[in-house]
Specification:
two-stranded antiparallel sheet, globular, mainly alpha, about 80% helix, single chain, Growth Hormone, Chain: A
Length: about 475
């Protein structure tokens, strides 16, 4: 049984390289597009089993009688397991077959969703006690367990996608196409919010988990037919070689060939200070991202008095226009005169904090849609750059999934802080100042300020490192000149 599992997930062998240039051109054109749209759609549909809770949360609270703090703990269970799992599964995905790893992850995530929703059918809150504990407490633990398990299985979805994009996109097109792919997150949130809102409005919150799980399973089976692993498994050359891109220095490439995976892991991840700094900054992006995505429906219904339909429409505008923000961030950073992407992040953080403040004090309802859209756009920029393109460029392609999983782990530390911290701040400010949602907004704006500070630290460290390297090169050149004399 264990051998079957290993062979099922094992990375396929590299085939002998095809020498027919016309055939290689035809195959690259076919497979690069096929892989791209497959992983794009995969990530959209995967959100159906992750972001459905954002719409269901207020109804779970009403139906089961849970406080905001309890709902925060429930929501954060996914982020804790997702964060750790994204890093661990990143290591596994680097050595696994994209074709089997990704669909399997989606199927078992869907099963966890079914268990989550329908466990509430068998145990209902009331006066019944289990081992001296009320049934509501037992049910909260069970829901937290299944949602946490779902987080682990969801964490298996992005790493194989990162591997596929790393191997099928060349360096010259990576930032642009990665930014286009990143819109799958916003479209995934939009699709999930709209579908969940319709299902919950007509059939109750459990259907947002049951029906959407079935859709995810069907998509996973389709992906198994669509996907393949890296180009070399089809007999194609490396994408950078094929497109005549600049690759690593010959000496560096030779070193990589003699290094084991874990030696590369140590060099390009564990001892990579830039990656650590990017990951810490990324955590504060996720505080805001999940604070807004997961709590906006409840915030709009309770603080602004919106109906479910209006609240989901505003959240949808946040998700859809976020796609534009991701593409804009990638486009502007590619064309930055300094060659650095960090200043773009600072600009986006400033815009994000400003829009959060204006959204909270705004009383003109149509303006809410515009501000929600801008919040989505300003969040999507740093999300794409800090934990995606910047992290990838700070490391090596051979450990791409692990590197992005490492950054993602920090992101989901921020997500845990967002889920539990937002719930706590709401209850705390409600008890102290009778204005619970003010606490949530202060919490999110503070995170954008901290994000700015972290980006400034990254810029300062990078500048100091560049000056040190330049000084070493000058000194080396001086020594060479003396030898020649």
């Amino acid at each position: 049984m264990s051998n079957f599992i290993v062979n099922y997930f094992k990375e396929p062998p590299i085939k002998e390289e095809i020498q027919d240039k016309e055939k290689v051109d035809k195959m690259y054109k076919h497979w690069s597009f096929r892989i791209f749209y497959s992983v794009y759609l995969a990530y959209i549909i995967a959100h159906l089993c992750r972001k459905n809770i954002a719409v269901a949360l207020p109804f779970i609270g009403q139906d089961l009688g849970y406080t905001n703090t309890q709902l925060g703990i429930l929501g954060s269970s996914l982020y804790m397991t997702y964060g750790i799992g994204k890093f661990c599964n990143g290591i596994l995905a680097d050595r696994s077959n994209v074709r089997t790893f990704l669909p399997t992850a989606m199927i078992i995530s869907a099963i966890a969703n079914l268990c989550f929703a329908y466990s509430a059918v068998f145990i209902t809150p009331g006066h019944v006690s289990f081992f001296g504990l009320p049934s509501s407490t037992i049910l909260l633990w069970i829901l937290t367990f299944f949602w946490g398990a779902n987080g682990w299985f969801q964490s298996m979805i992005f790493p194989p996608i990162a591997k596929a994009l790393s191997y099928w996109l060349s360096k010259s097109e990576r930032a642009t196409k990665w930014s286009i792919w990143s819109t799958s997150h916003q479209l995934g949130v939009f699709t999930t919010v709209m579908l969940s809102g319709i299902l919950i409005g007509h059939f109750g919150w459990k259907t947002a988990f049951g029906i959407e799980a079935v859709i995810v399973i069907i998509t996973a089976l389709w992906l198994f037919e669509r996907l393949r692993d890296k180009p070399q498994s089809l007999g194609l050359p490396d994408i950078d070689v094929y497109k005549h891109e600049k690759i690593d220095e010959p000496e560096e490439e030779k070193k990589k060939q003699t290094m084991s995976y874990f030696e590369m892991f140590r060099k390009y991840i564990v001892c990579n200070k830039i990656l650590w700094l990017l990951s810490i900054a990324y955590a504060f992006v996720y505080v805001i991202r999940f604070g807004t995505e997961d709590w906006f429906v409840k915030y709009l219904m309770e603080y602004k008095g919106d109906s479910l339909a209006i609240a989901t429409a505003k959240l949808s505008s946040l998700a859809v226009v976020g796609s534009v923000g991701a593409i804009a961030a990638g486009w502007f950073s590619d064309r930055s005169s300094s060659g650095s992407r960090i200043p773009i992040n600072i600009i986006f953080f400033i815009g994000l904090g400003t829009c959060l403040f204006l959204f909270h004090i705004n009383t003109f309802d149509p303006f809410d849609y515009i501000l929600a859209a801008l919040i989505g756009a300003f969040t999507a920029g740093p999300q794409l750059l800090l934990g995606g393109v910047c992290a990838l460029e700070a490391t090596s392609k051979e450990v791409a999934s692990a590197a992005l999983g490492f950054a993602g782990m920090f992101g989901y530390v921020g997500a845990v802080l967002s889920a539990s911290g937002t719930g706590f701040m709401i209850d705390f400010f409600q008890a102290k100042f009778n204005n619970g949602w003010l606490g949530a907004v202060i919490f999110w704006i503070s995170s954008s300020i901290i994000g700015i500070i972290m980006c400034l630290i990254i810029m300062a460290y990078s500048s100091a490192k560049a000056k040190k390297l330049q000084a070493a090169q000058i000194e080396e050149q001086t020594e060479d000149d003396k030898i020649e004399v």
